[in-house]
């Protein structure tokens, strides 16, 4: 637990020697290319087949996130980085499309569907269920308005992931 919390607070690198600050500074191209960071930013209670050495969320980690404002702030920063990657933004309790959405919306597909599922689940686990719900609602609106191919993913994965 301590290693993961230290990583998240910027006090230690992860097992690959990368700090959270380095990950949060990745360009969109680096976020697309690297597949072993998302498990560190948005941990779950189940192991990842892509990165099985990432610490799993435990009740102690959940409690630490819910009690520690600095951990919540880092979680929000990580979420904003990933939202930007998808052409989305978080403002006033809403997740909305930003001005880059049209050029980035293709990223809401492929392996990124799994990343989004992970983000939704992790936000709920780590004390941000409202943000998870805001992202889910935004994704539902995107599916309805311009990406109907997302509907099956919403029904099969994202609805349960966001606990809505």
Report how far the terminal alpha carbons are from each other: 29 Å
Helix-strand topology string: HHHHHHEEHHHH
- Low-confidence blocks of residues: none
Largest sheet: 2 strands, antiparallel
Whole-angstrom Rg = 15 Å
Helix percent band: 55-70%
Number of helices: 10
Structural class: mainly alpha
Q: Strand order across the biggest sheet?
A: 1-2
In short:
58% of the residues lie in helices and 5% in strands.
Protein model, in words:
The protein is mainly alpha-helical and 164 residues long. Helix content is 58%, strand content 5%. It has ten helices and two strands. It has a two-stranded antiparallel sheet with strand order 1-2. A hairpin with a 2-residue loop joins strand 1 and strand 2. Helix 8 runs antiparallel to helix 9, helix 8 packs parallel to helix 10 and helix 9 runs antiparallel to helix 10. The two termini are 29 Å apart. The mean pLDDT is 92.
């Amino acid at each position: 637990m301590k290693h993961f919390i230290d990583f998240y607070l910027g006090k230690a690198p992860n097992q690959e020697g990368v700090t959270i600050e380095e990950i949060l500074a990745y360009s969109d191209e680096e976020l697309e290319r690297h597949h072993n960071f998302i498990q560190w930013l948005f941990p779950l209670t189940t192991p990842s087949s892509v990165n099985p050495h990432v610490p799993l969320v435990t009740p102690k980690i959940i409690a630490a996130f819910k009690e520690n404002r600095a951990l919540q702030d880092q979680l929000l920063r990580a979420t904003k980085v990933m939202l930007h990657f998808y052409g989305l933004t978080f403002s006033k309790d809403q997740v909305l499309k930003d001005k880059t959405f049209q050029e980035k919306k293709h990223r809401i597909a492929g392996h990124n569907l799994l990343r989004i599922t992970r983000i939704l689940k992790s936000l709920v686990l780590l004390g941000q269920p409202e943000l998870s719900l805001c992202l889910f609602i935004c994704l539902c609106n995107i599916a309805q308005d311009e990406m109907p191919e997302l509907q099956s993913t919403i029904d099969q994965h994202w609805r349960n992931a966001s606990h809505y």
